[in-house]
Design goal:
about 210 residues; alpha/beta; eight-stranded parallel sheet; about 35% strand
């Protein structure tokens, strides 16, 4: 804690032989798996399950990254699930500025270190590789054997063989299954938010 405080909220649990460097916040009922390395600048939201190495990253609530892999300088939404071995790049080999990709646009970040932004309810398969300055939209799924694209729009199901849209009704079904594991369920407000995101995504992400 010499570089900043380590705050453990009510019900948070830390697995054996983990290393946590401040400043860091670990939220209510969040769980850090054994042998994890949580580096400075990290915020773990409530009821998250995290493991492996995480650095300077924000996890919102109820998201999972329970296994090995590195997530650095990234922003992870709610109800995200990162499969085992999911890893972000956060540094260019030239050590230059990382540019954020949003649709066809390349946006300056002013940062040498920048990982991936992942929207609510998105998922990654095992051993997913995510690029520096990348973006994964709301409720999308990445299951590819190569490095993921710099930009994945919302409500997509992307594999080596195809890139298909996911109907919002299917997203409700998937979300309810995940939320049930935390004794939650998708309510009318949650459905309205997802429906709104699906309606405006083609415009805001182009």
């Amino acid at each position: 804690a010499s570089r900043g405080p380590i705050l453990l909220d009510q019900g948070a649990s830390i697995g054996a032989n983990s290393v946590i460097e401040g400043p860091c916040y670990i939220g209510q009922n969040a769980r850090v798996q054994p042998l994890s390395c949580i580096r400075p600048g990290t915020t773990i939201g409530p009821v998250c399950r995290v493991g492996g190495e995480i650095s300077n990253t924000i996890f919102l609530g109820y998201s999972n990254k329970s296994h090995d892999g590195f997530i650095g300088d990234s922003y992870i939404g709610e109800w995200v699930n990162c499969g085992a071995g999911t890893t972000t790049s956060n540094l260019k080999s030239t050590y230059g500025e990382v540019r954020l990709t949003h649709g066809p646009r390349q946006l300056p970040s002013g940062r040498m270190l920048l990982g991936t932004g992942i929207g609510d309810h998105a998922k990654t398969a095992t051993h997913t590789q995510l690029p520096a300055g990348g973006y994964i939209g709301v409720a999308s799924m990445i299951a590819v054997s190569h490095r993921g694209a710099k930009f994945t729009p919302s409500f997509r199901f992307v594999t080596d063989e195809s890139d298909e849209s996911t109907p919002v009704e299917k997203c409700y079904e998937i979300a309810n299954r995940m939320m049930a594991r935390r004794e939650k369920s998708l309510d009318d407000v949650d459905k309205a938010v997802l429906a709104y995101a699906a309606r405006i995504a083609p415009e805001v992400e182009k």
